[in-house]
Design brief:
Elements (H helix, E strand, L loop, with lengths): L1 H7 L15 H10 L2 H6 L4 H29 L6 H27 L10 H7 L8 H22 L6 H24 L14
Helix pairs in contact: 1-5, 2-5, 2-8, 4-5, 4-7, 7-8
């Protein structure tokens, strides 16, 4: 388990690099990369932006849930030190996702969905049933798998194809989390190819 921290400690969270094209796709990429000059120069379609904001808000809701799930796990007292360190790292990844999604939604003219109070997530996730480290890891793995499939599922729905790339990158992060959690649980790899997004 001690190698999990090493495997995820690199700075893999820098979301995007920007291209030279000044299109809505470049604008969306620029929003997530913090390149506001690209955003200012882009021609943003209100209808497309509104559609994409709706999808981004669903993604933001997933990130809020993941942040709070990891908080519940971290504060449960059930996680051993190396596992706790990884859980906190995964939570920080989800916070980076959240912050990027909020900034993107706002810059597209939308209103980000609000985070619920922690007790609401605790009820929804049935945190009172968590009795062991395995229970916490199983919950986290289930949520990560749900996020993988959700992000892969929305890729074709974006009007702005740049946001499709963002969803793919988020799905990749969630896949890394899921893989490491399943490894920690001693579970087998998926039985075959094309296991995600179905």
């Amino acid at each position: 388990m001690s190698t999990l921290t090493d495997q995820i400690s690199s700075t893999r969270r820098q979301f995007l690099t920007t291209g030279s094209r000044l299109t809505l796709s470049a604008a969306a990429l620029g929003l997530l990369a913090g390149e506001s000059s690209i955003v200012r120069a882009a021609d943003m379609s209100t209808d497309s932006a509104s559609h994409d904001v709706g999808i981004l808000n669903v993604a933001l809701g997933l990130e809020h849930e993941a942040i709070n799930a990891y908080q519940l796990g971290a504060s449960s007292g059930l996680l051993q030190k190396p596992v706790l360190d990884v859980a906190v790292r995964f939570q920080s990844d989800h916070k980076a996702h959240r912050d990027a999604l909020i900034a993107t939604i706002q810059k597209l003219g939308g209103t980000p969905v609000n985070e619920k109070p922690l007790p609401e997530y605790a009820r929804a996730l049935q945190a009172d049933t968590l009795k062991s480290q395995g229970d916490v890891l199983t919950l986290a793995a289930r949520l990560e798998l749900g996020a993988i499939n959700a992000y892969l599922g929305v890729i074709p729905a974006f009007k702005d194809t740049g946001l499709s790339k963002v969803a793919g990158r988020l799905a990749a992060d969630e896949t890394l989390h899921w893989t490491l959690l399943n490894n920690a649980l001693g579970r087998a790899l998926p039985a075959g190819a094309l296991s995600f997004g179905a």
